[in-house]
Specification:
An 8-stranded mixed β-sheet has the order 12-11-8-13-16-17-19-20, with helices on both faces. The protein has a 5-stranded parallel β-sheet with strand order 2-1-3-4-5, with helices on both faces. With about 400 residues, the protein is α/β, with parallel strands linked by helices. The chain has 2 domains: about 170 residues, Flavin prenyltransferase-like (Rossmann fold, 3-Layer(aba) Sandwich); about 200 residues, CoaB-like (Rossmann fold), CATH 3.40.50.10300. The protein is built from 15 helices and 21 strands. Strand 19 and strand 20 form a beta hairpin. Helix content is about 35%, strand content about 25%. The protein is elongated. The chain binds cytidine-5'-monophosphate. Cytidine-5'-monophosphate binds next to helix 12 and strand 16. The site of cytidine-5'-monophosphate has 14 residues, from helix 12 and strand 16.
């Protein structure tokens, strides 16, 4: 996806069992476009060799403060001079203690002390080590010093115990790095969004639904969270992973979606309706499976509430954003919906340009007029929508 394209990262690997996961992390960061330079501590090298990291990163691996390969013998300075960030993963209790106290007795800690770029640390240790007063103190000090702590997570540990102290998984760390570099355009904003299709039951196994992959909504929720917003995603049935930092509320029908939206709405600054809500639902849903017969069968349908229109007509509505997926006359239909539902912003797209695929092409309509965005991968489109939305929100 190239979301880390052009980023130079120094990855510090210290001596914890989770070092084996750092190999996968290098692969993922590289796949996302980052130029990764690994610095191994002596302890780290006991778990995974430099050869592995060199092969995966495509760059020389550094372990020694006195490495003569660096032109002026200044590896501790040169390696981070043009780096965008240092990530230490896994970070042992020992390296956290050193970083919190400004010790510099090997290449990695010296690099961290001499850096000009941000430092992120992914702790990995036994739960008692993590909970010990000394590590609590060190973690608090690192936060005060502006170091970003990623995790740790909870779960089963290499020692067999269960608790807090596991290194976050490589996928989660890679996501955290992508998020770290995003401008925090929506910091302090609370956003409620709808996603996916709704499913209106005819009987316990059949129903009426819309075709909606949920990809645009989940991508937008991810972009909002990465821009610093607190996001609640009220989602119809789709099987997509929930983006980091997003709270997902699972629903099935339009009525359940409406209830969940109104429950989440108090205090929200923004409401974004991305869901493809079914326009109608059966008046009656059979309790048991309807048996096949040769006779005709009629279903009586009743209109579903328009969730977005209801939210937008509250006495003090949040900033409301709609989506209009059309198969023709995009401008006319999208602008018509924006006016009818009283929305300050609507995102229009032609279904043939976006539905189900990885790319999308959208046009934003607001009080200032029409703003076409270039065709791009959905994550980029989501970020462009976030950037536009941020300019329209009232200042705090
Ligand atoms: O279905 P329609 O084209 O009117 O959808 C436009 C916008 O309204 C979308 O943002 C959709 O999520 C929202 N909507 C809704 N509840 C409905 C129908 C649509 O929130 N019942």
């Amino acid at each position: 996806m190239n979301e880390l394209k052009g980023r130079k990262l120094v990855l510090g690997v210290t001596g914890g069992v989770a070092a084996y996961k750092a190999a996968e992390l290098v692969r993922l960061l590289g796949k996302a476009g980052a130029d990764v330079h690994v610095v191994l501590t002596e302890g780290g090298a006991r778990f995974v060799t430099a050869v592995t990291f060199q092969a995966l990163s495509g760059n020389p691996v550094w372990t020694d403060l006195w490495d003569p390969r660096m032109a002026n013998n200044m590896a501790h300075i040169d390696l981070t001079r043009d780096a965008d960030a240092i990530l230490v993963a896994p970070a042992t209790a020992d390296v956290m203690a050193k970083l919190a106290n400004g010790l510099a007795d090997d290449l990695l800690t010296t690099l961290c002390l001499a850096r000009e770029c941000p430092l992120l640390v992914a702790p990995a240790m036994n739960r008692q080590m993590w909970e010990s007063p000394a590590t609590r103190r060190n973690a608090a000090q690192l936060l005060v010093d502006g170091v970003e702590l990623l995790g740790p997570g909870a779960g089963e540990q290499a020692c067999g115990e269960v608790g807090l102290g596991r290194m976050l998984e490589p996928e989660a760390l890679c996501e955290a790095m992508i998020a770290f570099f995003q401008p925090k355009l929506l910091a302090g904003r609370r956003i409620v969004m709808t996603a996916g299709p709704t499913f209106e039951a005819i009987d316990p196994v059949r129903g009426i639904t819309n075709s909606s992959s949920g990809k645009m909504a989940y991508g937008l929720a991810r972009a909002c969270a990465q821009a610093g917003a607190e996001v609640t995603l009220v989602s119809g049935p789709v099987s997509l992973p929930v983006p980091a930092g997003v709270e997902r509320v699972g629903v099935r029908s339009a009525l359940e979606m409406r209830d969940a939206v109104f429950a989440a709405l108090p205090g929200a600054d923004v409401f974004i309706g991305v869901a493809a809500v079914a326009d109608y639902r059966p008046v009656n849903s059979a309790e048991h499976k309807i048996k096949k017969s040769g006779a005709e069968l009629s279903l009586t349908l009743t209109p579903n509430p328009d969730i977005l229109a209801e939210v937008a007509s509250l006495p003090q509505p949040p900033f409301c954003v709609g989506f209009a997926a059309e198969s023709r006359n995009l401008d006319e239909y999208a602008e018509g919906k924006r006016k009818a539902k009283k929305l300050p912003l609507i995102v229009g797209n032609l279904v043939q340009d976006g539905l189900g695929g990885d790319d999308n092409q959208v046009v934003l309509f607001d009080d200032q007029g029409r703003h076409p965005l270039p065709k791009a991968p959905k994550p980029d489109v989501a970020r462009a929508i976030v950037a536009h939305l941020a300019t329209l929100l009232p200042a705090f």
